[in-house]
Amino acid sequence: MKKSFIKIVAIAAMAQLIAEVIRHGVPLHQNPPAQSYLRQSQFITNLAFNDAAIFKGRGEEMAQLKSALFAGRAAAVVAGQGGVGKTALAEAYAREHRTDYRGVWRVNAETDAQAGLADLAVAFDPAAAQAPIPQAAAFALQEISKRGGRPFLLIYDNVTTPDAIARYRPKDGAHVLITSRFQDWTGHADKVDLDVLPRADAAAVLIARAGRGTQAEAEALAAILGDLPLALAHAGAALAREKLTSFAAYGAAIEQRMREAPPGEYPIAVRATGLPRFW
After folding, report:
1. Taking Cα atoms as reference points, which of 145, 178, 7 lies closest to residue 76?
2. What's phi and psi for 254, nearest 5 deg?
3. Which of 78, 143, 144, 169 has a 20 to 30 Å separation from 136 between CA atoms?
4. Mean pLDDT by 10 residues, the chain (279 residues)
5. C-alpha span between 109 and 121 (Å, rounded)
6. 201, HSE (Cβ side, Cα atoms, 13 Å)
């Protein structure tokens, strides 16, 4: 299998290199960046499957994803604003349902989906590391489509539009789970809209991440942070690190930062809590 694959990619690589030189005057990057992955009994993944203890709520959305992927079109998108927890939900779904799949792979589609698929190709067959990225990515999709049994879960994270990953969707053998801020996925995937956490769940996230705190003080801080999961994660990590800082003192400092923060891509609570430590 390796010899035939190397022969195929060698021919394809030469054609691709010629085309790229003609088009751009530069060769393709030859060696996809290595990425750690787990391969146990043919289960392939690049997820650590951690944070189970601090993931709270989202039971309804998890059920919607399972229904969309197993009873729908085998493609689902988690859509919502930045910082609302789209990636966390996708990874929690993968963690909870990993036994339903023969592999799980997360691709950062915001930067380079093709490179992420090339890493998957290497997980399937180390010989793919010798291929140019486009050929390795195509090989990964081919492997997903041709292997039978349980489906493979492919997570495309931070997709800008449906067209951005249209050519990277396997023909068969896979469930495709997408996270995106883009809203119109009609005809492409079943959409699960994601909003901020309910207040009680937001407080539970803070307490779990901080390793301390009461429900009342956690709910007060969650209100300041707009119940946004990413802001809650930032805040919880800071409170876990700064054990002498009270929830109230941290909240007051964040409110001041929020008043002074310039406009940005993410919600203001995410930006304020994500800045370097200031104690």
Report:
1. 178
2. -70, -40
3. 78
4. 46 39 30 43 84 80 96 91 94 94 95 94 95 97 88 97 95 95 96 96 95 97 97 96 96 95 89 69
5. 16
6. 13
